[in-house]
Design brief:
The protein is α+β, with helices and mostly antiparallel strands and 163 residues long. The chain contains 4 helices and 8 strands; from the N terminus they run E-E-E-E-H-E-H-E-H-H-E-E. 25% of the residues lie in helices and 33% in strands. The N terminus is likely disordered.
Length: 163
């Protein structure tokens, strides 16, 4: 039973809200959070001209209003009707995403991005690694989607081996 689903421009089905996965008695929850951040794509070993040649205008400091969609799943609790209380999810997202990332310059303020170019893909990976195991033992973080615009986003998700 899907509560709310939409198709993306690529025709791929996206579920927002919660869904009960058939025959597995699991629930998937999706929570969305937004943050504004600045970044640039630069390799320290390259000159400004080489960075421009490689990354174009993204080599200059610029910002985005990012949107992250966090996917959680686990056993549905028939007594409460929940996987996890949304207030608990919001608290984790505030602490782990909004507070540290909103209005920051990623590679200057976040240690991970001093060694990793702050691409949308790396931002999704960073969020996944930082959110992993933050929602309790019975709740699995399985997916993080990050969009820097309506047209561009990246997905980082757990693979079939749990990694």
């Amino acid at each position: 039973m899907k509560i709310c689903s939409t198709k993306s421009s690529s025709g791929r089905q996206k579920t927002i809200g919660s869904s009960i996965v058939a025959n597995r008695h699991e629930v998937e929850l999706f929570s969305k959070v937004r943050f504004a951040a600045a970044h640039s794509f630069n390799e320290a070993s390259l000159s400004p001209e080489e960075n421009w040649a490689k990354y174009g205008k993204c080599s200059k400091v610029h910002g985005h209003n990012f949107e992250a969609i966090i996917g959680l799943r686990g056993k549905f609790d028939p007594q409460t009707g929940m996987l996890i209380n949304f207030f608990d999810v919001e608290k984790v997202l505030q602490e782990m995403i909004t507070d540290p990332l909103d209005y920051c310059h990623l590679e200057k303020e976040i240690a991970f991005f001093r060694g990793n170019i702050p691409t949308t893909e790396n931002i999704a990976r960073y969020l996944f690694k930082n959110l992993e195991n933050k929602f309790g033992p019975d709740v699995e973080l399985f997916r993080v989607e990050v969009f820097e615009s309506f047209e561009l986003g990246a997905i980082y998700e757990r693979n079939e081996h749990g990694q």
